[in-house]
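Quick log. Single chain, no ligands specified.
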Amino acid sequence: RRGDGSDGITYSHAVRMPVFYGMMLFSFLLAAAAALNVFIPSYAVSLGYPLTQASVIASAVMVGVTVGKVVLGMINDRSSALGIVVTVACSVCGLTLLMLGRNGITVLMAGGFLFGWGYAAVTVESALLVRQIFGGESYAQIYSNIAMMLSVANTVAAGGWGLLSDHTGFVPVFCICIVFMLILGGIGFYSLKFKQS
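-> predicted structure:
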């Protein structure tokens, strides 16, 4: 129930709603794509960059995470839909630039920085969307269930990306992550449409 229209949806009601499972999938895909972070230095080394430069690229990702958390929070205060757009756009642009990494260290650093915004969204975007969609009444219980998918995704993706990259190289992995981001963007907008209905 929504109570007086502002307190939110109860947990028992939420688990019977498709949007609840949509947000679980949203969180899974977001965390799975973000788990690629641990492979970025290895990817840079595979392109022929020395380990010192690969470490700089990893640092660029972390700068993107730091900036992304602050800015995504500010954006979501204004518009959750815009938060989804920025998350997806930065992640897709970042992954695309990473795939073009042979063009120079600057391209890789820019890609890592933008990818960091997607990594930041794991803890920012998913939590704020759940609050926006389901309200505050059972927020802790609802979000704790949805947040379990973050851990599941990290567990599955960490091994999965490594196995896949060993057999196909990194570019197919980046392409899959781009698809993940586009799908979760659609799920996010569907979820917000539910909220407005």
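Residues 21 and 74 are 26 Å apart (CA to CA).
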